């Protein structure tokens, strides 16, 4: 049986509406949860790298059942940004296939690095911008969707930390229709 070691939140703590929803959804989900026996490594030995966009439900859109695959999400489904997680998934947890899925209407198509750094500086100040440049010198925007998919697949195939034996494909999910089409 799972034992929790966390300190309980004080009963008088104020929760936002989002936090209240998380708590209620957790109670409902856990009341009928029967998947605690699933193994740590994904059963189907693959990972999906997709965007953090709220319009994408990877499990529904790509047919992923709980325990099947790792799902890595970041802004723009960037392979560069996800490399650490990809290495952990493959080298420590045995995945041997990458399905990279970018999408139509992605925010990463709408700006350049200078724009993003300018907004951070305007809203948060010079110190925040300096800190961000130190840790994330590139927001990794892209001007063309299909080319970005091709470039990320090429990056993964050329990477020394992704074995040649790993199967890699690149896709575009259409937020307007729910369809996914293969690019590479």
Concise account of the structure shown:
The chain is of the alpha/beta class and 184 residues long.
Outline the structure in words.
Helix 4 crosses helix 5. This protein is an alpha/beta fold. Helix 2 links the parallel strand 1 and strand 2. It is built from six helices and five strands. A five-stranded mixed β-sheet has the order 2-1-3-4-5. 38% of the residues lie in helices and 16% in strands.
List keywords for this structure.
single chain; 184 residues; alpha/beta; 5-stranded mixed β-sheet; 6 helices; globular
Helical content stands at 25-40%
Q: What's the helix-strand series?
A: HEHEHEHHHEE
User: Radius of gyration, Cα only, in angstroms?
Assistant: 19 Å
Number of strands: 5
How much of the polypeptide forms β-strand, as a percent range? 15-25%
SSE topology sketch:
Blueprint: H1 17-31, E1 46-51, H2 58-62, E2 69-74, H3 79-92, E3 97-103, H4 113-124, H5 126-135, H6 145-158, E4 167-173, E5 180-182
Parallel strand pairs: 1-2, 1-3, 3-4
Antiparallel strand pairs: 4-5
Helix pairs in contact: 4-5
């Amino acid at each position: 049986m799972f034992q929790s070691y966390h300190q309980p939140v004080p009963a008088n703590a104020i929760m936002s509406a989002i936090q209240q929803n998380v708590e209620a959804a957790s109670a409902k989900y856990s009341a009928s949860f029967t998947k605690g026996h699933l193994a740590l490594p994904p059963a189907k030995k693959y990972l999906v790298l997709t965007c953090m966009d709220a319009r994408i439900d990877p499990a529904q859109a790509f047919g992923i059942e709980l325990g099947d695959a790792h799902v890595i999400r970041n802004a723009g489904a960037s392979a560069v940004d996800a490399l650490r997680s990809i290495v952990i998934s493959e080298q420590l947890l045995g995945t041997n296939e990458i399905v990279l899925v970018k999408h139509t209407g992605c925010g990463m198509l709408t700006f350049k690095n200078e724009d993003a750094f300018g907004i951070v500086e305007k809203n948060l100040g010079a110190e925040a911008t300096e800190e961000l440049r130190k840790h994330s010198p590139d927001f990794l925007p892209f001007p063309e969707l299909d080319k970005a998919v091709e470039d990320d697949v090429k990056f993964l195939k050329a990477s020394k930390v992704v074995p040649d034996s790993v199967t890699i494909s690149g896709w575009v999910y259409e937020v307007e229709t729910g369809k996914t089409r293969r690019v590479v």
